Amino acid sequence: MQKLRILLISLAALMLPISCTVISEPVRSDAEPHVPFNTLVARADQFKGRTVILGGYILETRNLESETIIKVLQVPMRIGEEPDFKDRSEGRFLVYHRGFLDPEVYSKDRAITVAGEVIGTGTEEMSDSPILYLKLKYREIYLWPDYPTHSYPYHSWPYPYPYYRYPYRYWR
């Protein structure tokens, strides 16, 4: 009985990272296994037409007549495909979506996970140096919830007035 319990717990622990994904299984099964972002950018022609899954933070959302272009700051993904911290970025990529995406919803600094088909690379001048972008054609997007940051009131001292001094006095 004990061995069966350990086996079930082990299987559940192994399945947890697999089951906590935000991209659908059909798209996931078409996607390339994890390829480093630098390799994707350097060898974009080899991956052209293949689906990859990337994460990052939205830098800009621009709507054109028939499509929306999302500029994303790429970062590695944690378990569950949630983008990691911005300072771990390895570059940028563009997502081309046929149709309209609201720039107020897909706004700057929102975390995003994208499954897209590689269509090539492009460059943009920024501060007198070109930046190379990977270009993806949209297959599936997961926009992570925008958790509000609250500043909770707190006291500037660790304990209420009479109790924070040594020796502890409960009244004056």
Summarize, please.
By secondary structure, the chain is an alpha+beta fold. The protein has helices at 2-19, 25-30, 37-42, 44-47; strands spanning 51-63, 67-75, 91-98, 111-126, 129-143. A hairpin with a 3-residue loop joins β1 (51-63) and β2.
Describe this structure in words.
This protein has 172 residues and is α+β, with helices and mostly antiparallel strands. The chain has a single domain (22-146), classed as OB fold (Dihydrolipoamide Acetyltransferase, E2P) (Beta Barrel). The chain is built from four helices and five strands, in the order H-H-H-H-E-E-E-E-E. Strands 1-2-3-5-4 form a five-stranded mixed barrel. Strand 1 (51-63) and strand 2 form a beta hairpin.
